Amino acid sequence: MKLANKITLIWAFIAILAIGVAVLVVTARGPANAGTITSYQDTDGWIYDCSQPIKAKSVTIPHIGGESQGLIPISQADSDAYCHKIGIE
Question: pLDDT-derived band of residue 34, with 50, 70 and 90 as boundaries?
């Protein structure tokens, strides 16, 4: 095998390895807006308190006078298990 072919093969291997690592990093991060919450307000105005942190995503919440950004649970099952209503805005 010629030296030029070996170098090309090495660069191709490095490129494939870099793409694989990039894919793993992106998929391991999860949703871009993910965070955790211990309380939240749903889109109907109800305020919830959670007994332990649960994963959340960012959403636009409508309210009187406009809209705001907020976090709501990703999993309804987690919300049902750990959160309860404490009031309404």
Answer: low
